[in-house]
Amino acid sequence: MGFIRILIELSLICMNPPRMSCLLAVWLAVVLSGIQAVDRSNFKTCIQSSFCKRMRDVVPGHSPYRALLETLELSNTRLTLQLINDNNKVRLLLELYRLQGNMTRLKINELKPLRPRFEVPDVLIADPPTEPLSLVSQDEGGVVLSLGADARHLVVSARPFRLDIVEGPHVLLSVNSRGLLAFEHQRPRKDTSSENDSEEVEAEEDAEDQNYEKEEDQADMWEETFKSHTDSKPNGPTAISMDFSLPGVEHVYGIPEHAENLRLKTTDGHDPYRLYNLDVFQYELYNPMALYGSVPVLLSHSTQRTMGIFWLNAAETWVDISSKAAENTDSVQAPSKVAQTDVRWISESGIIDVFIMLGPKPTDVFAQYASLTGTQSFPPLFALGYHQCRWNYKDQEDVRSVDQGFDDHDIPYDFIWLDIEHADGKRYFTWDPAHFSQPREMLQGLVDKRRKMVAIVDPHIKVDSGYRVHKEIRSKNLYVKNKDGGDYEGWCWPGTSGYPDFTNPEMRSWWASMFAYDQYEGSMENLYIWNDMNEPSVFNGPEVTMHKDALHGSWEHRDIHNLYGLYVQMATADGLIQRSGGVERPFVLARAFFAGSQRYGAVWTGDNAAEWSHLKISIPMCLSLGLVGISFCGADVGGFFKSPSSELLVRWYQTGAYQPFFRAHAHLDTPRREPWLFGPENTALIREAVRQRYALLPYWYLLFYKAHGTGQPVMRPLWVEYPEDVTTFTIDDEYLLGRDLLVHPVTDEGSKEVTVYLPGTGGVWYDAFTFQRHEGGQNLYVPVTMSSIPVFQRGGSIIPRKNRIRRSSSCMEKDPYTLYVALSPQGTAEGELYIDDGHTFNYEQKKQFVHRRFIFADSTLSSSNISPDSQFSTASWVERVLILGAHKPSSVTLKTSGGSVASLEFDFDEATSVLTVHKPGVNAGADWTLLFQW
Amino acid sequence: MQHNVNWLQALLVLSLSVTLGWTVEVQRPRGVPLTKRQFYDEAKPFTCLDGSRTIPFDRVNDDYCDCKDGSDEPGTAACPNGSFHCTNAGYRPTFIPSSRINDGICDCCDGTDEYNSGASCQNTCKELGRKEREALQKLAEITKEGFLLKQQLIEEAKKGQQEKQSRLSELQDSRKGHEDKVEALRTVKETAEQPEKEAKERHLKAWEEHKAALRLEKEKAKMAEVFLELDDNADGFVDVSELQTHQELDPDGDGTLTDTEAQGLLGGAHKVDSTEFMNMWSNMKEKYVSEVCPPTPSSYDSSHDEQKDSTSDKDQERDLDKDPDSVYPEDDLDEDAAGEDDEDDDDDDDHQVSLLFCIATPFIQPHHIFLSQQYICVCVYQRQYKIFMYTLSTVSSVCERERWCLLCNAALLPFSFRALEKEISFDFGPSSEFAYLYSQCYELTTNEYIYRLCPFNRVSQKPKYGGSETSLGSWGSWSGPEDNKYSVMKYEHGMGCWQGPNRSTTVKLTCGKETAVVSTSEPSRCEYLMEFTTPAVCLEPPNIDTQVHDEF
Questions:
Q1: Residue B534, φ and ψ in degrees, nearest 5
Q2: How close A811 comes to chain B (CA, Å)?
Q3: With bands split at pLDDT 50, 70 and 90, how would you rate the model's confidence at A325?
Q4: Would B76 disulfide with which of A431, B63, B172, B227, CB 3.0-4.6 Å?
């Protein structure tokens, strides 16, 4: 909900008596509403962000940095080494770590900073465990360190400073190979610093280095102005920059959030990709502008290797990508041209803290990153159902009638959402007394239907002495401060607002306590939370966010900006856990995020629009997030701004049903668009899409369980599973869910067909609905109608579905499973099933879950326990087994663990080669075997 | 195992409404309605109701779907397209989708859908039945009374229709008379203009004199006009009965102008001619209200509605509230006004703005705006208007309300004529039962807004605590379903929405004793829904004795 700043201003003006100003404002609003795309001038380009310009102006090939090898210290866990900038004689301290799991960490800070520089806390789940670095060789040119097996070495070159990670004859990655390392050391301000201060510092510096050149201050180093906002920059220039070269790499991914293709483009000749959490009104597609969230993780992929670079810095960051055909000189073979991708990171403050994840497989990189920042939180099952949202459901009666509408039209849903209008004057944690006077009554109505609600709680707090939340935060002195030390105030939905300092643990803990049932009046167990505007959005701030010189304790907002949103979601999720005494899994949706946000809930792609292009972009946007750990991603179904045609809406439901977070949402000013408002045909199409989602909930739940356990993304680019198939490297109009479902949503208006690339030569895929078999490794032409959702199940997989679609996922809890066994050309298949209570931490704390493996081989389908130490009794059973790509058997026999043997009835469809085994009737948690006699 | 539902178990003995003291015991599989009982014979194999397949009877309700039409699993959730029959003794029987069986939510009021989910469902059928009966009873009463009221409305509408017809022909007749009056007025105007011009041209000092002369002239002209107005039968005399049409002249203020009082006003005579009348005029002129231009306009004829009108229709009210004289275009002769306007008068009258307002007929609300050196006379009838422009000098000497009104009236005669024609041509329902709504307005105040419905005209919304009115649509058409066209009104082309459509309103009419707006909502952005009760849609009540509760 980015926009509507205009409307806010409008209402403020209209409150004043003179009528003409109000009319004028209305007129303005009307005129302005004609502007549909993002107003680019509201947001900085690299040139307008002085540090970016300075850093980008650094010319390659002239690095002034030199490693002082005599300062090298090697302990069991790390290597330290001083670097010196020969231009100004300022020294830096380099730390190198070899981390467990095939990672290298590299930190650079000032050796003697004037003030401590910010190091990002709370993102790493722990101090990454290290492994010993051993010295292989050393000479005046540098040192070689061993990174363990595979002849993997870390080569430190002294002049100029450069790092190379090599494996055998191959350079995997080089640091500062282009000489773009730049580290703006802190310095006293010349015009204002007192005589004494500067003398002291200079004396100190002089003592060390006699002949350094004084650097001239450049414009904007101590103050810069963008539009009407001046950034006071009391600490002066503090930017950092570093380049990385990736020989042999043509494809890089990640660094969300951008409205961009999956594969990142080179940024030569235009702006770098920007990472700076911003509330962008009506964002444009296919450009490098910053959006709501930032994850400074870049993945590189080639047929040889997948790697990752995690630039742990929460300040405004820009990433340049360029590629070239480099001279291949590192090999013993004759020099040859190979592709190379160069990446340059630029941040405004903080330190250089980089994790180089060496793969080599995509799954390894995911595991490596997960070991650093944690995995996707395991959502309650119902959060994977369908979410019905709109800004705004007006009152309790509206909620009731929409809820009833779903029953009347037999469409399942789990959550109905309340946007900002539900609160009393946008005072979060309260309810509008006129429209939501009996929230518990409303929530109980949903409990009675086994459904839930999400209410919005944004992190801007109305400045109102009668508002308890404000009063307490102020009295506890927990607001973010402005540069002068007073409480920072900005405009947001409620008007003048304060911004709690979520970087402060005390603030987070107080915030979490607010979700207790006795604190958040009117809340109940089935009320969950949405944190919007947590970039943070400040309507009248620079670039619609907080002033960089605002203060979080001793740190500037500049240092922590991209981290703010993560903290908000963290505190809220903690609150939901605490309110249940640590029993229930939380569900919190946030718009802004950072590395590590995956641990706290779901995110969505913000305020998109009801346009086909936005439907299309939802796929690469969520894929990019999945690659960097954030699996629980979705886009507003239907598009937030504007009004979708019924065709677009249907296609969006069909797409959203196959994306992790499945929520319809709409702007306040759009016509209503509940699924039944577009005629019976479209209602039926939407119903079918939503029902498919619910049927596949067991599979989604399994994927999330595994994502939580291993860090593997739920929604995956094809190349993740087919890393050697170059065709897949640029595909972002289709994707995989787990390994076994391939989805190619229809995202073009009036489509009559789509071309689906089925990867895996030698393998097969089955249409998930017609069960038609297709060879892998081909472009498949698929004719589509309005009811088509091209989805394919991989031959060799077994997917459990629940085919009894009910009002909500909770209603389906005890329902039986149907197993879809899709045979590989070799006649085998394998799959898993995960079951627990769906909403508590008992799966973790008490090992209360069922995790089965199904294997079909040698004419036998068996169910075995993957996790023998787990315990859970489920009421669900196996209702039916479908074998896709089967022959007609002569008999099917069920053997249960008790030793009983029974012959089962079956149907065989010659046309589709589908064998349906009726009613094995075994409990889903039990061991059993089906024997097929052909 | 929970799923293994024994079919014997599933064969329920439906013991219905035992508490009511009557029992119906029918053996049939769970979820089967009585009407389909014969298809479920446990002694025979079961054939799917679509005939697609025959299965052993023990596979009916065995929690596995065999029939494509779902007919083998009426009592379980196994078939995606199945339905379950709730007997609901004491209330209405109903079908629910199979997916609602044992989903933990009580759907049937008799609770029979949750036989194995752990949900404890109360049997609420009896209570629901009672409530429904009460509601129906109440509805029947309303319908009955409403229908009687409707008959009256139809009667009144008939009369009204006739009146309108005759008024229409009157209007046609009076058209000529009006034209004559306008002509007469023009003459008066010209004669009035001429001396003024001359006076101005000749000498400024003569001005005061002239003003007096003009006043007299005016007085005479006015008196002459009043005489004409009063002389209803145009016999050249004003008599007592003619005078009695002007109750406002009542000297003792008791509201009635008696014969004696009227005679008194006429100097004791029974009737007077124009010359005699001139002598009496001074007694009356303070109180006299022109037939053409009543000074306190009563908008429409809704005297009983006045309270509402004055609170809601602010724009109009602002004009009305002012002293009629002060909003009058001030005559140059009026010294007080001239004094007040000194500032503006220094150079010219460029910025002098004043508003004139009068009502010529109940339908016509002309607004006169005095602007710059020209008078703009705006005669408004409903949403149509005509603008006349007069030069300052013309107006300065002749403008008097009655004349203006006469002018306006004449100009608007075609409008009022058309308006009447339009009204007559409106579709007020099969028996004109909706005619009484015409020219009426009904309001509903909610937390934030005052909604106003003027049937056959417009719908609007106004913030309760100040702010301008928003049109939610103008009369469009009857738009109920084909068989019930007069149940829904549609108002369209209201104010546009940001990024959205023009506002529109659907008014749903339901039978009620009162005529009132009972609810408003905005089911879709900028598409409003109003519920409106009126006796006019009450249907002839069926025989009250035949109740809906005939099943049990």
A1: -155, 145
A2: 5
A3: confident
A4: B63
Which residues lie across from A5 on neighbouring strands? none
The residue among A309, A294, A288 whose CA lies nearest residue A244 is: A309
Nearest CA in chain B to A398: B523
Contacts of B1 in chain A (CB under 8 A): 877, 921, 923
Bridging pattern class, strands A764-767 and A791-794: antiparallel
Cβ contacts of B499 on chain A, cutoff 8 Å? 33, 641-642, 667, 669-670
Is there a contact between A459 and A533 (Cβ–Cβ < 8 Å)?
A: yes
Alpha-carbon gap, residue A136 to A153, rounded angstroms:
8
Residue B135 DSSP code: H
CA B71 – CA B31 distance, rounded (Å): 10
Nearest residue on chain B to A402, alpha-carbon basis: B523
In whole angstroms, give the CA distance from residue A535 to residue B265.
84
Measured CA to CA, the distance from residue B274 to residue B286 in angstroms comes to: 18
- Give Rg (Cα) of chain B: 37
Q: Which DSSP string corresponds to B279-304?
A: HHHHHHTTT---SS--SS---TT-GG
Q: Write the secondary structure of A505-528 as one string of H (helix), E (strand) and C (coil).
A: HHHHHHHHHCCCCCCCCCCCCCEE
pLDDT at A534: 98
| Distance of alpha carbon A387 from alpha carbon A455, whole angstroms | 12
Q: Which residue has the higher pLDDT, A219 or A800?
A: A800
Contacts of B500 in chain A (CB under 8 A): 643, 669-671
pLDDT per residue as tens digits for the range A578-598: 999 999 999 999 999 999 999
The closest of B99, B117, B8 to B60, measured between CA atoms, is B8
The yes-or-no answer on residue A836 being catalytic is: no
Dihedral sign (CA A474, A478, A479, A484):
positive
- Phi, psi dihedrals of residue B133, rounded to the nearest 5°: -60, -45
Interface test with B, best of A814, A874, A909 (most B CBs within 10 A): A814
Instruction: Give the number of beta-carbon pairs within 8 Å between A and B.
Output: 78
Residue with token string 């009904």: B442
Query: What residues have CB less than 8 Å from B212, skipping those under 6 apart?
Result: none
pLDDT tens profile A154-169: 999 999 999 999 999 9
Cα distances (angstroms) measured from residue A647 to each of A666, A685, A689, A786: 16, 10, 13, 8
Q: pLDDT digit string (tens) for B73-101?
A: 999 999 999 999 999 999 999 999 999 99
pLDDT at B197: 60
Q: Given an 8 Å threshold on Cβ–Cβ distance, is B105 in contact with A449?
A: yes
Torsion-angle region of residue A5: left (phi > 0), alpha (psi -120 to 50) or beta? alpha
List residues bridging with A489 in a β-sheet. Answer: A498
Instruction: Select from B99, B102, B449 the residue whose CB has the most chain A CBs within 10 Å, as the one to mutate to test that interface.
Output: B99
A532 has catalytic annotation: yes
pTM of the model: 0.80
Query: Which positions ≥6 away from A28 have C-beta within 8 Å?
Result: A6, A10
Among A342, A403, A532, A636, the one annotated catalytic: A532
Residue pLDDT, tens place only, A414-472 = 999 999 999 999 999 999 999 999 999 999 999 999 999 999 999 999 999 999 999 99
Q: Are strands A602-604 and A588-590 parallel, antiparallel or unpaired?
A: parallel
Residue B311 pLDDT grade (very low, low, confident, very high; cuts 50, 70, 90): very low
Residue A540 in contact with residue A495, Cβ under 8 Å?
A: no
Between A219 and A408, name the one with better pLDDT. Answer: A408
Asked whether the predicted pLDDT for residue A249 surpasses 80, the reply is: yes
A726, pLDDT greater than 60: yes
Phi (first) and psi of residue B336, to 5 degrees: -60, -50
